[in-house]
């Protein structure tokens, strides 16, 4: 977890740039369709930029989204976060999303098949 905290500190102090030492496997996970239509995503992205939600006055705001509720149990991670959000969903939706994916990449780089 220390490496993750160090990566968050680096991101904060280097204008949102990722450290070269960050070696995430999460981009190898299979992602299903979110269910949000593409045109809605485009509208939200446009509103986000036009509404200056990425600026504070003339200063750009750097967003670093940290996904994974277990990370919030680590006080060193929490110290690096300005805002903490918990997005809730129904059991049925969470179960359907889990059943739809074939597996996920573990920390050692292996694909772990989801139990169905």
Characterize the structure shown.
The chain has 116 residues and is α+β, with helices and mostly antiparallel strands. It has one domain (2-109). Helix content is 34%, strand content 9%. The protein has four helices and four strands; from the N terminus they run ααββααββ. It has helices spanning 2-13, 38-50, 75-79, 91-100, and strands at residues 55-56, 59-60, 103-105, 111-113. It has a two-stranded antiparallel sheet. A two-stranded antiparallel sheet has the order 3-4. Strand 3 and strand 4 form a beta hairpin. The model has no long low-confidence stretch (mean pLDDT 79).
Write the layout of secondary structure elements.
Blueprint: H1 2-13, H2 38-50, E1 55-56, E2 59-60, H3 75-79, H4 91-100, E3 103-105, E4 111-113
């Amino acid at each position: 977890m220390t490496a993750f905290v160090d990566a968050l500190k680096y991101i904060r102090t280097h204008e949102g740039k990722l450290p070269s030492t960050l070696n995430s496997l999460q981009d190898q996970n299979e992602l299903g369709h979110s269910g949000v239509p593409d045109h809605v995503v485009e509208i939200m992205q446009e509103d986000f930029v036009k509404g200056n939600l990425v600026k504070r006055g003339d200063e750009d705001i750097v967003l670093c989204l940290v996904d994974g509720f277990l990370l919030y149990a680590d006080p060193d991670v929490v110290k690096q976060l300005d805002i903490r959000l918990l997005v809730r969903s129904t059991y049925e939706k969470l179960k359907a999303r889990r059943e739809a994916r074939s597996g996920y990449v573990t920390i050692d780089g292996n694909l772990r098949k989801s139990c169905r």
